[in-house]
Amino acid sequence: MVITTGADVAGQTRAFNEKLADLLATLPQLHEIDDPAAIRAARVRGEGAFPAPVILPEGKDRTVPGRTGDIRVRVFTPPAVRGVYLHIHGGGWTLGAADGQDPLLWRLAQAAEVAVVSVDYRLAPEHPYPAAPDDCEDAARWLVANAAREFGTDRLAIGGESAGAHLAVVTLLRLGDHAAAFRGAQLTFGAYDLSMTPSQRLWGDRNLILSTPVMHWFSDKFLPGTGPEERRHPDISPLYADLTGMPPARFVVGTQDPLLDDTLFMAERWRAAGGQASLEVIAEAVHGFLQFPLEITERELACQEEFLANAVGSGS
Fold first, then answer.
1. In a domain, 2, yes or no
2. Which of 7, 115, 117, 128 has its CA 20 to 30 A from that of 88?
3. Model pTM?
4. Is the separation of the CB atoms in 176 and 204 below 8 Å?
5. pLDDT digits (tens, 9 = 90+) for 111-164
6. What is the CATH number of the domain that holds 268?
7. Nearest-angstrom CA–CA distance, 307 and 271
8. Is the pLDDT of residue 219 over 90?
């Protein structure tokens, strides 16, 4: 493994991690609370490790049609639009919302000159698999068919964080030949093997946003009553899929993330299938680090903006 980013500021990141671990040690882990609705409400109030969401007026809510009804999406349209970014939020398929990261998405929209369409997919356990993948696929198909009319461009990209990165890859796989409509995939600390990679299994109880018990809790909510072999189905764990024909992708993960192996393995499988894959391994970064005011966060956001701007700006 080659650390490509953040080695020069690893001390700052490590010091932050120590404070984060101290804070998290005072809080119950998600599997100990075991009440997704209560956890969601607490996060909206800013209780816990993450700051309360900031809702920006630049974000506009609308719906697009889905197979079981309308799907809510949150749209950011900058003054200049060269492409459209289909964004899928994280939260272990159980938490999170399309309006949970407005400042980051509005910044990205302006810097990369992309309209951002963030999918508010249905959450587990109220809506277990395949609800979230179905909603993301339906939103993607709507965008492929309507982007030119709605936004004035058919130059598309896709991506997300954590469970959102997982759902982005599943969406591309479900699109088949239509995946070619997407010119790039920004895949940030994603989970790609829900039967658990070695880094997930070996992490243990140490709590830096995620722990092995928390990852079990998330996957059990999303995939109730399933065993490891069922969880290796390519529609559930895209690490096991045929990745032929996938668009150029940018993979990002930190060295202090239990999902480290997921990204390392997926990037190599992406390349082995003939796709373009760049890989950034960030020194000392924890899962979800984009939510925190760190130098590595600023650098990573700038890299994402550059990647997406280049993705929608390249080619015919």
1. no
2. 7
3. 0.98
4. no
5. 999 999 999 999 999 999 999 999 999 999 999 999 999 999 999 999 999 999
6. 3.40.50.1820
7. 18
8. yes
